[in-house]
Amino acid sequence: MTYCVGIALEKGLVLMSDTRTNSGVDNISVFRKMFTWSVPGERIITVMTAGNLATTQAVISKLEERTKAPDERTNSLMDLPTMFQVAIETGKLLRETVRHTQETNGVRGKGRFTASIILAGQIKGMEPRLFMIYPEGNFIEASQDTPFFQIGETKYGRPIILRGYDRDMSFEDAVKLLMVSFDSTLKANLSVGLPLDLMVIGRDEFAPSHERRIEHGDPYFDAISRNWGEYLRTAFHSLPDYSFFQDYDPDSAGK
Amino acid sequence: MTYCVGIALEKGLVLMSDTRTNSGVDNISVFRKMFTWSVPGERIITVMTAGNLATTQAVISKLEERTKAPDERTNSLMDLPTMFQVAIETGKLLRETVRHTQETNGVRGKGRFTASIILAGQIKGMEPRLFMIYPEGNFIEASQDTPFFQIGETKYGRPIILRGYDRDMSFEDAVKLLMVSFDSTLKANLSVGLPLDLMVIGRDEFAPSHERRIEHGDPYFDAISRNWGEYLRTAFHSLPDYSFFQDYDPDSAGK
């Protein structure tokens, strides 16, 4: 499994992905699921992938035209005029890769060999944009109402994002929020694992504003993980107490 | 979908279930998923169900021998000597019901018509016990290491239980913890809905210690829901801040 989140802020985009892949619980590997291409000063595009690893690696390789000799490659992501067209092209490659593997294996219907993609980036003269691309190649775009996308093992880490997100928050707070969300997921699900990849794309910077791999033993992530348990318990104990014997009266509650 | 949780404490057992069933998003109903039988002073048994509603209702009806005339019924749950045997019997009825529906419909394999059950209770002279019963009829029992079970839509509400649970906590705190867990789930998933059913089974009481239906507009649940968002944000902002420019040093962290 996998966990990737992309969130859109007023200031730009923040993306985080884990790196664990597993085929069964006894075949665990570390693979990068976040890929960034940029033309400094002109565009930056980041893709995060979840699902069948052969499918997602094939899509990334095709985006980079690795079927051609190195000096003949032209990464079309670098030429397409809009993020919308980048999403169309990425979706098309994803759909074709999934279909091809399904057809050559005589598999029909959903599930096998599928993958999902979060696409984020900005091209000069346009807004930063965030898309979620489905295995069928179609896609949706983040909006004011739905300003973040998750793929993979999304549920454990969703409540804290729903509650903590604010479009005007700082990049630093957004990174903190994602770390809490990832920590909750890691605590509950073995198929999501460290290290994590982090990418911050500031509005109109057209280059990574901040990029980092969070490894096992990272002092900041460990502090978040340790403190969050304690602060959650404090928050929990600050909630009004339940009583078996009398109905709760919000007006008389001292807290 | 459904969300049910059963947790074992030193003091006894606390159980909570939602009541929403849906067949598609345009066919939503309220059905009780928690059922309790007791012989005051001798035994109390509570069952919570998730999965196919026809299956779970059939299992409950068979437990109560509703195929017989009312005066010929003997609820075997009231006679079986141990909770382990109650789990065997309940599992057998569940497996048979699932298999029968699958076979009469020509369906094989997992998924269709299945259900899961959380079984909790105490019989005099023995400890309070908590089981999770699978559609195949086999089951596992809660332990010191795994002191709670969830069925249905389990993931959204799991991180807070993992972090807030303490075997020695009061019943009131356990109810509060479950309300937070349900609130997180309700906020994220339409298929889980109010009202909620609550049952507290105190050790050696052999009768419900506390029993309640939490309806829409319940002042306590609303207070939990409202305050939890705020307290979560406070907890979040108390966490050490992330910095793009310097490594985190736990020793110099002022908080």
Automatic annotation (TrEMBL), chains A, B:
Keywords, ordered alphabetically: Proteasome
Highest taxon, organism lineage: Bacteria
InterPro entries for the chain: Ntn_hydrolases_N, Proteasome_sua/b, UCP009120_prtse
Pfam family, one: Proteasome
Entry GO CC: proteasome core complex
GO biological process: proteolysis involved in protein catabolic process
This protein's name: Proteasome subunit alpha
Biological source species: Paraurantiacibacter namhicola
Taxonomy of the source species: Bacteria, Pseudomonadati, Pseudomonadota, Alphaproteobacteria, Sphingomonadales
